[in-house]
UniProtKB/TrEMBL annotation, chain A:
GO-annotated cellular components: ATP-binding cassette (ABC) transporter complex
InterPro entries (alphabetical): AAA+_ATPase, ABC_SmlMolc_Importer, ABC_transporter-like_ATP-bd, ABC_transporter-like_CS, P-loop_NTPase, Sulph_transpt1
Family per similarity comment: Belongs to the ABC transporter superfamily.
Protein name in the entry: Sulfate/molybdate ABC transporter ATP-binding protein
Pfam families reported in the protein's UniProt record: ABC_tran
PROSITE patterns: ABC_TRANSPORTER_1 (PS00211), ABC_TRANSPORTER_2 (PS50893)
UniProt record, GO biological process: quaternary ammonium group transport
Domain ABC transporter: 3-235
Species the sequence originates in: Aminobacter anthyllidis
Keywords: ATP-binding, Nucleotide-binding, Sulfate transport, Translocase, Transport
From TrEMBL, chain B:
Domain annotation ABC transmembrane type-1: ranges: 56-259
UniProt similarity note: Belongs to the binding-protein-dependent transport system permease family. CysTW subfamily.
Subunit details: The complex is composed of two ATP-binding proteins (CysA), two transmembrane proteins (CysT and CysW) and a solute-binding protein (CysP).
Task of the protein: Part of the ABC transporter complex CysAWTP (TC 3.A.1.6.1) involved in sulfate/thiosulfate import. Probably responsible for the translocation of the substrate across the membrane. Part of the ABC transporter complex (TC 3.A.1.6.1) involved in sulfate/thiosulfate import.
SUPFAM superfamilies found in the cross-reference section: MetI-like
A GO molecular-function descriptor: ABC-type sulfate transporter activity
Protein name: Sulfate transport system permease protein CysT
Source domain of life: Bacteria
Transmembrane segments: 12-36, 56-82, 94-116, 128-152, 180-201, 240-262
Subcellular location: Cell membrane
UniProt keyword list: Membrane, Sulfate transport, Transmembrane, Transmembrane helix, Transport
Topological relation to the membrane, as annotated: Multi-pass membrane protein
Amino acid sequence: MKIRLDNVVKTFETFRAVRDVSLEIESGELVALLGPSGSGKTTILRMVAGLEYADAGHIYFGTEDATDIPVRDRGVGFVFQHYALFPHMTVTENIAFGMKVSKVRRDKAAIDARVTELLRLVQLDGLGERFPGQISGGQRQRVALARALAVDPKVLLLDEPFGALDANVRRDLRRWLREIHQELGITTLFVTHDQEEALDLADRVVILDKGQIVQQGTPEDVCRNPASAFVMNFLGDTNRFTAAVSGGVARLGNATIPAPGFSDGPVEIFLRPSDLGWNVSGEGIPATVARVIDRPAGRRILAVTASGEAVELDVAPETQVSAQDKGIIIIERARVYAAA
Amino acid sequence: MARRILPGFPLALGITLVYVSIIVVLPLGALVFKAASLGFEDYWRIVSSPRAVASYRVTALSALAATAFNLVFGMALAWVLVRYRFPGRRFIDALVDLPFALPTAVAGIALTTLFAENGWFGSVPAHAGIKVAYTPLGIMVAMAFTSLPFIVRTVQPVLEDLDPALEEAAQTLGGSDRSIFLRVILPLLTPALLAGLSLSFARSLGEFGAIIFIAGNQPMSTEITALLAFIRLEEYDYQAAAAIASVLLITAFLMLAITNILQARALRYMARG
């Protein structure tokens, strides 16, 4: 089912949570809403679900205007951050809940068969008689997913689905959710503040800031061509410099950075730690090493430039460098944005 | 064993046991002892006398009716206080505890005045020929008044802690308001409701001060068990008073035991596997 948001607005008291958001999600697509807290991502998700009503604008499911359809008739599956499993029901009863309260009558055998099928899908065979309090967080989230899928939703909505889990479980569940999505092909929209999760899981990432979409595209698009300084900053560690452009180039230390299309004047230059290198001499920014942090994939140098700015850069694990060394930061890649 | 912050186990347990012994066990023990000094036949004669049996009936039935009334209205009151914000909410919240604070005799006199045939409230049903004061209905009113806070105060905190996401989840799954209430909210409130119910019922069984003013106290019809025990006491028949009181004691104890069992069943999902 294709979903379309058309100039949707939502205000809480005086706080404008969502400002004029328009968005299309293709049928079968897996889309991430990514943004810092307060960016309106959860509000958008809840409006798609019908748990909040839009102040203005429309939400379409396929060609049908779903804006005023109440949540219970909207046919969405919703997975909550803290699972929201019914604590007094067993796993089986939780999964069967939607089928039992449905207006469509199902006989007991059909419900049982569907529950068994879903338990297998979420790899929880044999745990059907447990209560939510008796299983782990990762298992609870899988029960929540099975419960949401039980009513054959047109759309699957997940609100920070892995936010409450520890890192390893989170990574496993992510891959597993991707597999389930591939298997079922259900249109899926999920909310996260974790850029790694969004990039790892989604076909398309929608980045939000202050209630507005600032960029949307494939993970490759947003990583390689961040549309603004905000996106650049939000997607990963960056070093920010201000510099002046003259004649289409900006100067940082004794390095020149091409800035085509920028008129003369101040600009912001963003450098990812992996876009930088360390050398004893050459063209770059002269700096002194303050500290070296060792990580499994390499070494991170915290350096201070001659003008006193702190810079972080990642170098290969075999690089010989230690605190107080003096050298040059080599710029391999840079992104230039107009000064804010 | 990890070091604890609070005073050690022996001291804490000692204080608790001494306190419970002096305040609870000793008086009850004396009561049982007194009743036991009657032979079985005498005991049975006293507790099964028609006047005593009539008093059990009116006490138990009124207590049941008052508890049922409070179950519905106490829950509604708790619901309104937790779920809605309106001017005067905190005032109403404070009013709920008034029956606890008010001397029960004062409550009894006030209720009698209000529910008398020419009183503010009593005159309305009087048109339909229904008398409240000096009838079992009046006993029920007094019981309901004094035990209302129990249900409200046990349900309120549980309702406050109920995760709104549970109701939202049930809605996204297509649940109607009715099925969400019956299948999600009510089962989660059941343990608290049972606790409030048993306290409310036990209190109603034992209520004395508020009732004697409104009941009329006619033997065989509006005489409650606690009053009968009191009358025997006035007659210096301590053994008969103890025997009648022991029936109340046993009933209250059985009732609390039953609700505890029910509560454990309702909470079985809390047990770790």
